[in-house]
Structure formats: structure tokens, C-alpha cells
Amino acid sequence: MNARLFLVMSVWICAACGAGRNNTRDVAGDYSLSERPGSGLIVVSTRLTTDCEQGETPPVAFHYEDDSYAHKRTGVIPVNDPFRKHDLQEPPGYLSIREVHAGAHRIDQLPPLATQLYAPFEVEAGKVVYLGELHVRVSNCGSPPAKVAVQVTDQWERDGELFHQRMKNLRSEDVVKRLLTEFTLERTQTRHH
User: Can you tell me the distance from the alpha carbon of 153 to that of 118, in angstroms, rounded to the nearest whole number?
Assistant: First the structure.
């Protein structure tokens, strides 16, 4: 293998390693922004309402990624996770607090509901950004294709209390509200054979 080809392959492998970084966990309660330069936090609550019968709804999560080309990072925000205790009830849901690199990001998928999304957001280094409550509504569950809608609302009064209970080094007063306002959703067409 010549040196040039080796160098190109090495860069590609390193880029692929970076692209595979996937954040699936909330930060710990003792998280400190001052110890993580170049990073910020997003706070988002999620809920799921469905007319599906019990047990029919699969695990659902929002997928997000940053707009960095060289150090792409991705993550998931749970909407329906059978292995996680609900933070919210009636309808059930979660409060997620995730670390992200400073910069531009977007929510781009809602697997496995075969839905493409576009919801951009920005996070500055050392800041905590509240994106709102994302309420996923699934209807017409029994006869495909199911209808999927996402409603974004400001539930900070409730979510701020949960944030305060969970985070020891951060104050709910320091959170910047930036509700997702540009939110487009497209149902991927199902082909019938």
C-alpha cells in the first residue's frame, strides 16, 4: 500500500470513528459546565400519546446530530423506552438533559415511525438550552400508514422543577428557553407490493 493511500484511509477511518459518537445518556447530577469547555446542554421533555393497543407501540426516540463535518456527533432523546422509568405521567414521558458540542444541531428522525424531521437548534458553549416539550401523537394505529404529529409547547414550569431536582451544580434560572419553532415532519411513503 502506498503512503498516500494509507494516509487517505487513516483520515477516513478517524472521521468514521468520530461520526459514530452517539449520545444516549443524560448527564450526571453533578455535571459542571465549567469542566466541559466547548460544550453546552439541551433540556427537552417528551411525551407519547397513541391510539395503539397495549404493547403495540415500539420503542421510539428522536435522533439529533450536529452540523459539524469533521467531528460529527449524534444522539437520541427517548419518547417511548420500555427500559426507562417515566419522569412524566398521563401521558407518560421523560425529561432528557444531554451534553452537546457548541454549535448548530438538528433533530432529523423519529425512528421507527419512518418519519423524517427537520428541527434546527443552536447551543452556545457553557449554556443550558430548553427546547420545550415534544409531544408525539400517533393515530390511526390499526390501519397503516399511522398518522404522526409532533406538538412543541413550553412546559418549563414543570420541567424546571424536574431539572432542579436532578441537577446539583446548575440552577433552573440559568436555563435559556429556545423552543423549537421551525419543526417540519414528513411521513416516509410506504410502498405496497
Answer: 17
Q: Per residue in 141-168, pLDDT tens?
A: 766 667 888 999 999 999 999 999 999 9
**pLDDT digits 0-9 by tens, 87-145:** 999 999 999 999 999 999 999 988 887 678 889 999 999 999 999 999 999 888 766 66
> If DSSP states are collapsed to H, E and C, what string results for 15-78?
HHHHHCEEECCCCCCCCCHHHCCCEEEEEEEEEEEECCCCCCCCCEEEEEEECCCCCCEEEEEE
**Neighbouring C-beta atoms of residue 15, cutoff 10 Å:** 14
d(CA 117, CA 184): 6
Confirm if 113 and 146 have CB atoms less than 8 A apart.
Answer: yes
Tell me the DSSP string of 62-118. Answer: EEEEE--STT-EEEEEEEE-TTS--SBTTTTEEEEEEEEESEEEEEEE-TTS-EEEE
* Set of cell numbers at residue 159: 420541567
User: Is the pLDDT higher at 10 or at 176?
Assistant: 176
